[in-house]
Amino acid sequence: MTAIDPTAHLTAEQIEELGRELDAIRDEVLADRGEKDAAYIRKVISAQRKLELASRGVLLFSIFPPAWLLGTAGLSVAKIMDNMEIGHNVLHGQWDWMRDPKIHSTTWEWDHVSPSEQWKHSHNELHHTYTNVIGKDNDLGYGIMRVDEDQRWHPFHLGQPLWNFINACFFEYGIAAYDLELGKNLRKRRRKDPEFRARARAVGRKIRKQVLKDYVIHPLLSGPSFLTTLAATFTANLVRNLWTHSVIMCGHFPEGVQVFERRSINGETRGQWYLRQMMGSANISGSRAMHFMSGNLSHQIEHHLFPDLPSNRYAEVAVKVRVLFEKYELEYVTGSLPKQVFSAWHKVFRLSLPNRKPKVRTPAPEKELIAA
Amino acid sequence: MVTTPLLPSDYLDLVSPLRAGADLRGRIEAVHPETGDAATVVIKPGRGWRGHTAGQYVRIGVDVDGRRLWRAYSLTSPTDRRDGRITITVKAIPDGKVSNHLVRRAAPGTLVHLDQPTGDFVLPQAKPAKVLYLTAGSGITPVMGMLRDTGFDDVVMVHCAPQPQDVIFRDELHRLAADRKLRLTEVHTATDGRLDIARLGELVPDWAERETWACGPAGLLDAAEEHWTEHGLRVRLHTERFRPRTVVTGGDGGEVTFSATGTTVDADGATPLLDVGEEAGVLMPSGCRIGICFGCVTPLKAGAVRDLRTGEITEAEPGVLIQTCVSAAAGPCDIER
Ligand SMILES: Cc1cc2nc3c(=O)[nH]c(=O)nc-3n(C[C@H](O)[C@H](O)[C@H](O)COP(=O)(O)OP(=O)(O)OC[C@H]3O[C@@H](n4cnc5c(N)ncnc54)[C@H](O)[C@@H]3O)c2cc1C
Ligand code: FES
Q: What residues of chain B lie within 8 A of the CB of A49, using their CB?
């Protein structure tokens, strides 16, 4: 809903052609998906488990500051690996093709307070289907923030930088809350709805288990290091929350990313759906380690185009996708992590204040595309 | 509680996948070529392995190109092998995914997934006085398991293979024959032509008195069953099939929804839903894959399916279960997986 539609220069035929070209990129990966990919995810899972075990082992002696530092750092990384490169991607069904019941979207559970079943519904079915459609995609502003000039301003939004910061610190709880659609469900009589109550109980059980493990059992096992281990697990969870929140904010918030009106997606074709994913996502550029720690969500554009391709393939897919962006004269929004985080936060601050008046979209005149 | 959301076993599996209490697995220790296209795979089973009866088969889950595929293979090792290893003997069939992988690519050290052995193609408690083994091709495998396990006073074996060099276990069979443990007739179909069951009496005059175990391709087994039935001796004949008896080769397929996984794919009217689901990455339970063990039964939530053995159509009703290994889509349907 930015004043100028950056896709206005494309004809309907071009959009469908773009869709076919993206399908071809997808098919290429599918054709040679195999043993190497399977070995990759198994290696990552095994490394994550060993790192977590080792870190928790070291934390048994967390009363000694070097052990605390090492253990906390290791556990933070292990938790981030669990949630990002492993959990998020397994739950997307990226590894279902292996038919390994232990690495399958229907059986996986992650180190997170939102039960994977509920997260899959709100993330895979809602967010990925309605990407950046205001009023339909809860990920946009998580229901507590104003994310576009066109949205009506309310004094509540003055606090949105603070709300966003609190959400970042307790991100996993924020996710659990909106997987439950807490805001909507606590209103009216919905809270009595047996289905909602069953889901709320499931979240309650998951939170209890997670808290018991991180804040009771492991500290108790540490004996004299009880308090320091407690602090360590708290810190690791905080680090994980801040990191995942930053990465995810960079996916759809930075300046240059488009949002869409509810009406605009009625009767959307495959090509148009692809185009919305392209315009509604932003990447993060950086080192291989950064891509890995972000669960390859740094390739957010590619992930949104092909949510079920194995994450280790996004890097190679990105090269081909970028060529298409250029060919169709579209803006590929990307930048370093600090730049994108700043850009996203900047928007949060900017939109906490009212803007003059909603700009009106002027349909750009259709013009022929001159392919580069 | 200590390891939530994982289980302690998820960590133990990293170091000790064959331990007692783990999911049943095995480790391939060696692959010995038998003929140009067959090999024996030696497997060390996990501690949970309960042991088999001669003639039974084991289901084995192998990762081929990163995808887990399950197939059944008869056990060819004797039940009391000293080192506790088991063997299967696999013949590579053209375009066969698992058989080619096991014969040509499987490497020692690889972990495979196992089920407990099963099957009722076994010898009876009371020893029959006279025995006939009637086999062809890779159908020799369950019988080899029996020969290595149990001796009888009077055993005749008729085995069919295209040429002498295609006979799996040939040296061992000839040794048994030389030791008078077995009377062996090889039928070389490339030169002698197919075995005509009606003329079995020429090779084994007293076939009708013999308790018979037969295993081989459908043509041989169908003919044998007919022959023994005609002579009123069907109870004497025990058969083992490696492939389902399908009659249906076509018919309209449809869109298949696997509602628990949330996947929808188009299927033709001839491909078993088990294969369709596996191809789409759905976790499908399975067993023999030929319609005998009921290890694959799954609720049919909506639509209709066709039984590939009979052509019969089953429509969804509450509580209707189908065998996915021998059912294909007959129009759009919803499978609860
Ligand atoms: C109870 C039982 C015991 C068995 N024991 C043995 C054994 O001891 N040794 C052994 O080698 N096999 C045995 N089999 C067969 C085995 O389970 C597989 O079916 C076989 O190895 C083919 O699998 P694949 O993945 O290689 O072929 P697939 O990739 O599944 O099939 C490839 C193609 O070959 C066709 N095909 C499948 N099976 C056969 C076949 N047997 N002959 C000809 N064409 C076929 C298919 O229709 C398909 O078109 C047994 C089967 C059963 C049910
Ligand atoms: S798998 Fe055995 S009956 Fe279907």
A: 6, 10-11, 14
Which tokens is A134 given? 């205001």
Least distant ligand from the CA of B34: 1
One domain for residues B23 and B97: yes
Last residue of a domain, which of B114, B139, B165?
B114
Which residue range is the domain that position B34 belongs to?
8-114
Q: How far is CA A261 from the centre of its chain?
A: 21
Whether B270 is in the pocket of ligand 1, judged by its Cβ within 6 Å, is no
DSSP B173-227: HHHHHHTTS-EEEEEEHHHH-S--GGGHHHH-TTGGGSEEEEES-HHHHHHHHHH
Distance of CA B168 to the CA centre of its chain: 17
Mutation to test the B interface, candidates A49, A60, A99, A207, most B Cβ within 10 Å:
A99
- Find the B284 Cα to ligand 2 centroid distance in Å: 11
Among candidate residues B88, B114, B140, the one where a domain is terminated: B114
Task: Return the ∠ at Cα A70 (arms to A65 and A72), rounded to 5°.
Answer: 90
Element (H, E) at B156: strand B154-161
CATH code for position B182: 3.40.50.80
Residue B276's CATH number: 3.10.20.30
Q: Are residues B58 and B79 in the same domain?
A: yes
Q: Which residues line ligand 2 (CB under 6 A)?
A: B 286-289, 291-296, 323, 325
Average pLDDT of chain B, as a whole number: 95
Backbone angles phi, psi at B270, to 5 degrees: -120, -15
Query: Does residue B146 fall inside a structural domain?
Result: yes
> By the CB < 8 Å criterion, does A359 face chain B?
no
- Evaluate whether residue B249 is within a structural domain: no
Report the residue from B11, B67, B262 with minimal CB separation from A97: B67
Give me the mean pLDDT over the B70-86 stretch. Answer: 96
Same domain, B216 and B275: no
Statement to judge: residues B270 and B220 lie in one domain: no
Domain count, chain B: 3
Percent of all residues in chain A with a pLDDT value above 90, rounded to a whole number: 76
Does residue B129 have a pLDDT over 60?
Answer: yes
CATH number for the domain including B82?
2.40.30.10
- Judge whether B325 and B290 are in contact, CB under 8 Å: yes
Which residue is closest to A79 within chain B, CA to CA?
B5
CB contact under 8 A, A98 and B1: no
B334: pLDDT confidence band, cut at 50, 70 and 90? very high
Asked if A98 lies within 8 A of B281 by C-beta distance, the reply is yes
> Does the distance separating the beta carbons of A109 and B278 come in below 8 Å?
no
User: Band of the pLDDT at A357, cuts 50, 70, 90?
Assistant: low
Between CA A25 and CA A318 the distance in angstroms is 10
A140: confidence class by pLDDT, cuts 50, 70, 90: confident
Higher pLDDT, A218 or A265: A218
